[in-house]
Amino acid sequence: MNNDIMENIVKNIIKKVKNEGDSALSYFTKRYDGIELTPKNFKVTEDEIIFAYKSVNRTFINAVKSAKKNIDFFQKSILPKSKILKKKGIVLKHVFKPLNSVGIYVPGGRFSYPSTVLMTAIPAKIAGVKRIVITTPAKNVTNELLATAKICGVNEIYRIGGAQSVAALAYGTKTISKVDKIVGPGNKYVTEAKRQVFGDVGIDMLAGPSEILIIADESAKTEFIIKDLYAQCEHDTDAKATVMSLSKRLYENVKKRIELFKNQIKIMYDNDIERVINAANEISPEHLEIMTKNPLNIARKIKNAGAIFIGNYSTVVLGDYFAGPSHVLPTGKTARFSSGLSVYDFFKTTSVIQYRNSAFSKSADSIIELANTEGLYKHAESIKIRIRRQRIA
Question: How many CB atoms are closer than 10 A to CB 131?
Fold first, then answer.
């Protein structure tokens, strides 16, 4: 579909939700999901969440709790700390404050993603966000997803998906109150909606199709590489998977054994390691696996990647579910300037500035000079009036 057409479709969805609220959400849920919902059915009830938790098998519950433990550990370990800087007559503070409310979009489509709940809700909780809201398409409200939300301490969940749910989170309706920031991956319509509402609400990133780049040499296991390529392509028909082999033999083996997703997988050979590293930095992949004899030597030279996985047993799938860092990562070369979702995304910072009279006096002449140079004479007067008052006193 032409991008201009998609942009207009999303623009109209957002406009209708802003103007008509809940009735628009019902309309688009029927139109795009084929499900009839009235506003009283938007929100998943507490009883439904409890029932879901009791319905799923204990093995799944234990797996979710194990993953949560790892994510808790990692995100807590990188919690930012407020700082106080003092010098004679001056106190400066850099204060971290959690956002008040966050909306998490959990994508639907072919699959339901409890893992996205883990990777987004836990960092928000650890940051201290008071209100955490999940929206997801109605057909993806599975028992497993609800059970995961309960384990993560989220009980405000709406069975609304697509661009319409982004609009509801951004502007609010009678049933769904607006939030301060929207996070989580989604399809191209969700991503476009996030782009259009940005500024009225915060967003994490504009994530595109998932991608993986594997750098490998003769020490890598061919079957590991192939399975990892398949795992990435499984996400979406637009997902991209690339191998850059330093070994001619490995290149031939992988090329010969690829049977699935052939239109999504690219296999290349180059025995010049510096050229390969430069190419990897240019690609700036969402996921980078390094399966070589000395992977850390290569990793040190990687400047652009959403997440780096070192060695034969550090598969991207570990990052998708279990390791600790979030699987919500920059795509489409945006790793050049952006980072994966973390606890940092759920804070804002405030500067606190306090000057005593003596410190103010020492700084006055320099500030007046800068203000006058810019032609902002009222700025200079703001300083001068205080100097005069000091002299009178």
Answer: 15
